[in-house]
Every structure is written in C-alpha cells, then in structure tokens.
Amino acid sequence: MKKIFTILTVLLVSLSMFSTSVFAKENGGKESLVALGDSIPYGFNLENNNHHPSREAYPYLIGDEADLRVRNLSVPGWKTDDLLTAIMNDQKYRQAIKHADYITLSIGSNDLLKEFGSSEVQGKIMQFIASPNPLLFAEIQEALEVEELVESMEEIVLEIQSLTDAPIVVYNIYNPYAYDSPYFRAGNLLLNDFAGIPSINSMIENDLSEQDVTVVDAFTAMFGNDDNLIDNDIHPSFMGQQELAKVGYEAIMDFE
C-alpha cells in the first residue's frame, strides 16, 4: 500500500510539473498586459470592421515592443460606469486583472461626449470660444460633470487595486478634434487649466497620482498633428496609436 501511495505521489508531482511546463510554453513565459477602456485602446475604425480589437491599437503595439502578452478588454462606447460595473461583477474582467502584470486604462472620453452635444453646453462653449472667462469655464465643467468623471476613474482604480498590485498606467484625455474643426479650440481650452481652475486632465493627474498609478499624457502625445486622427473621425489613426503606445511603453519601462 505504501508503495502504491509513493507511486501515485510521484505521478501527481510529475503531472503537475508537466502542466506547469506546458502552461509556460504556451504563454512563452511572458508577462502580461491587460488593456481596459473604450474605443481608443480597442482601435476603433483601424480595421475594415470593428468585430474585434485591432492589432494596431496601442496595447498591442506596447506588447510587441515590451514583449508582453496582451489581453485587450476594451469596449467601444463604454463610459466609466460601464467599466466599473464590469470590474466589480464580471469574472472575466476580475480574473484577467488578478493575473495581469501590467494594466493600462483609457476611459472617460465618452462620459464627456455624452453631454458635449447638448444645446446648453454647445451654447456655453461657443460663448467661451468667443470670450474665454473663468465663470464660463467652471459652468462648462459642471455641465460636463467633470468632477463626477474623475471620481468614477478613482473608483475604477481602487477596484483594480483591490484585485492586484500590478502597475496601472492611466491615459488622460486628448483633444479628439482636427485643427479645422470648430471644436478644436474648445477642446484645447477645456483640457488645459484656465485662470487658475484645474482642467479635467489636471484633476486626473493630481487625484489619480495620489492612488499610486502612473498618468501618461495622451493630450500632448496626440496634439499638433491631424495625422494622429483618422480622417473625419475622433479616433486615433495608426500614427496616433503609435504615439499613444510610446508614452505607455515608456511608463511601463519605468517599472522595470
């Protein structure tokens, strides 16, 4: 009986070692990057269809450069509450986060855009472009629910950190409008501090950095070159995705 027990023990250990080696071989022993967010990290409109995340989106470009396995869980159209709900309740997201070595987060643009098109906000923006002043800046931020957006991003980060101690790289908000768009100047004004009032990007930098994450500057990475946007679109082109990949890659390398 003792001999049989010994044989079974040896077999179980051997099988365990075999399973581990197979798993390592399948995954190439690579560390992993989990990308969370909306249509920006998804790579929306980079392909002929949008049935799956584009391999030309910045999470995969970072993965190629840093030799990381990438799992892109981004969903076009998602706002902060959609992502927070998924992280809190969806086991696919929770397990992916638990096993991640690095995490990128790009969310919030759709929260802003949902109110941006309202007649009230549009009217205030046109006034602000014509005559920028602190009162209008504050009113537009309130209408766009900027503080609530940043608070939602903080909740997302805290929920991620409850599942893992992996480094988190958060992208701030870039100006999605081309130079000839009537909203280009408005985007620049609203995404930068004005008359001592912090913009949403300053809030993201200040508030989230306190939560021990790295905030990277998507605004500067995308600014000043219309070729970084897909023609007649608010989404990054392949060139824009490359710029976003650069700042993300640099942040991840700082953790090495």
Automatic annotation (TrEMBL):
Ranges for domain SGNH hydrolase-type esterase: 35-242
Pfam families xrefs: Lipase_GDSL_2
Claim: Transmembrane helix is one of the keywords in the record: no
Signal sequence, start to end: 1-24
Domain of life per record: Bacteria
A single MF term (Gene Ontology): phosphatidylcholine lysophospholipase activity
InterPro entries given in the database record: Ester_Hydrolysis_Enzymes (IPR051532), SGNH_hydro (IPR013830), SGNH_hydro_sf (IPR036514)
Stored Gene3D superfamilies: SGNH hydrolase
Assigned keywords, A-Z: Signal
This protein's name: Lysophospholipase L1-like esterase
Phylogenetic classification of the source organism: Bacteria, Bacillati, Bacillota, Bacilli, Bacillales
